């Protein structure tokens, strides 16, 4: 189940809210959230719920043993349990997300015919695996307390707002809120407003600009020239931003409706004036996860230059690979790793001397090229798109429109997306706007979203690969 469907908006969400707020007892409130979270995840493929529950059980048992051997001061056993638990969790992710990829490349390399069958990717496995790993690692580092209740740990893992599209919520963020959170009417209203904003990002902007990118990339290659391939790159950049940040907004808003407070995941990344700044603003929960659990343990920048360079490239290769089991994702990660190295070594000092607009333009061109690498999995398609973008081939606009009149949506939704990617709301003092006006605007926006959902057949879910 996804948020941008009528089933979720008018059946699932009202029912879980009703039952949650009718029940006064905190324990039973958590039971309601757990049951509905498991229902949410099992809506499309019920069998994969067993996989998630098993992964949670592995972390739960591993956590109990880590805590037990810590109390007994048995360091070797404690470390052994930790390592085995992490290996089991990573192995589970590898089998279901990367085994097909590995076998395919082994067969190509050695001309073999190994067959493991078609292993389907469970939705959200990368998100919930990283959340479970953060619990186990933080427990081992003694940064959090042991969760003795398996069902509460499972609630943390499976909580439906952030289960399938993030943000990656660390256990320490909500450790105390599982039992001691306080729901308020103002918090519920504020959370619902945030949810509506995220929904609007998804169904009004992301879906419509995404259709433009899909149209050009899958269309007749003889029709579209340089300007239309740049148009496709901009459209996809807007799609993935408003889709992903929209889901994060909806997750944060839903969490607040139930008394949970998740950390921000996006901070207007398209206003960045360097690639370094971009990755401080984009998918914050993922970049900080890799920083804290991979980069710093490898030594970070506290090692010799050669090792430091290797650390950064390794982390960014893994970051790319996290997004999908294809070579283009690894190339995308290394692309950013190399650029970040250049900025750290000398390019950052040069950018600091240039006008901000030039730095912003440099960043946006790099980001758009990066999204081409990310979006297109076939090398030939990537080469064709990039060559078209930088070869200045003319496009006959009339021919392009006649090929598919839906291309005209670009002149409406892309400007809307560009306008909305800037932090205009930071310049508006909402405290001076009457509450009834804000609520009225949000309800109108919600109604518009419903109209778009009813009238649209294009509602892609980008994160099935993650």
General description of the model:
The protein has 466 residues and is mostly helical. The chain has two domains: 6-180, no CATH class; 187-465, no CATH class. It has 19 helices and no strands. It has helices at residues 6-22, 26-42, 48-71, 75-110, 125-140, 150-158, 171-174, 177-180, 185-217, 226-257, 275-281, 284-295, 305-323, 327-353, 356-375, 379-389, 397-403, 410-420, 435-455. α1 (6-22) runs antiparallel to α2 and α9 (185-217) runs antiparallel to α10. The protein is globular.
Helical content class? over 70%
What do the pLDDT scores average to? 92
Largest sheet: none
State the distance separating the first and last CA atoms: 15 Å
Query: How many extended strands?
Result: 0
Number of helical runs?
19
Q: How many domain units?
A: 2
Shape from CA axes?
Answer: globular
Order of helices and strands: HHHHHHHHHHHHHHHHHHH
- From the alpha-carbon coordinates, what is the Rg to the nearest angstrom? 23 Å
Strand content: under 5%
What structural class do the secondary elements suggest? Answer: mainly alpha
pLDDT below 50 for ≥5 consecutive residues: which ranges? none
């Amino acid at each position: 189940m996804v948020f941008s469907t009528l089933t979720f908006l008018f059946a699932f969400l009202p029912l879980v809210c009703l039952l949650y707020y009718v029940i006064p007892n905190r324990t039973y409130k958590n039971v309601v959230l757990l049951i509905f979270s498991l229902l949410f995840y099992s809506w499309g493929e019920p069998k994969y719920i067993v996989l998630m529950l098993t992964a949670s059980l592995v972390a739960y048992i591993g956590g109990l043993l880590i805590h037990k051997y810590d109390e007994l001061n048995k360091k070797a056993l404690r470390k052994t349990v930790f390592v085995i638990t992490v290996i089991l969790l990573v192995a589970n992710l590898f089998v279901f997300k990367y085994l097909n990829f590995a076998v395919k490349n082994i067969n190509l390399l050695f001309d073999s015919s190994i067959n493991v069958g078609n292993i389907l990717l469970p939705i959200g496995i990368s998100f919930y695996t990283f959340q479970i790993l953060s619990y186990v690692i933080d427990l081992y580092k003694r940064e959090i307390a042991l969760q003795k209740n398996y069902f509460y740990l499972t609630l943390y893992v499976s909580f439906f707002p952030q289960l399938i599209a993030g943000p990656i919520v660390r256990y320490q963020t909500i450790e105390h809120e599982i039992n001691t959170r306080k729901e308020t009417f103002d918090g519920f209203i504020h959370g619902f407003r945030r949810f509506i904003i995220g929904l609007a990002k998804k169904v009004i902007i992301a879906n419509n600009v995404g259709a433009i990118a899909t149209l050009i990339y899958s269309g007749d290659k003889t029709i579209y020239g340089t300007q239309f391939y740049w148009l496709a790159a901009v459209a996809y950049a807007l799609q993935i931003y408003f889709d992903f940040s929209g889901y994060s907004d909806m997750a944060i808003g839903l969490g607040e409706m139930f008394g949970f407070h998740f950390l921000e995941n996006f901070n207007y990344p398209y206003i960045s004036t360097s690639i370094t700044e971009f990755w401080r603003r984009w998918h914050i929960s993922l970049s900080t996860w890799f920083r804290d659990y991979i980069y710093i343990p490898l030594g970070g920048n506290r090692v010799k230059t050669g090792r430091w360079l290797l650390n950064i490239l390794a982390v960014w290769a893994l970051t790319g690979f996290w997004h999908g089991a294809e070579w283009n994702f690894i190339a995308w990660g290394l692309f950013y790793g190399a650029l970040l190295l250049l900025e750290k070594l000398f390019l950052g000092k040069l950018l600091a001397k240039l006008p901000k607009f030039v730095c912003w333009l440099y960043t946006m061109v790099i980001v758009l090229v990066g999204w081409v690498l990310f979006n297109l999995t076939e090398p030939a398609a990537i080469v064709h798109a990039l060559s078209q973008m930088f070869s200045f081939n003319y496009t006959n606009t009339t021919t392009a429109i006649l090929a598919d009149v839906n291309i005209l949506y670009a002149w409406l939704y892309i400007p809307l997306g560009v306008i909305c990617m800037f932090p205009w709301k930071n310049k508006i003092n909402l405290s001076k706007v009457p509450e009834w006006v804000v609520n009225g605007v949000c309800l109108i926006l919600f109604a518009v979203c419903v109209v778009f959902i009813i009238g649209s057949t294009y509602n892609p879910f980008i994160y099935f690969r993650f």
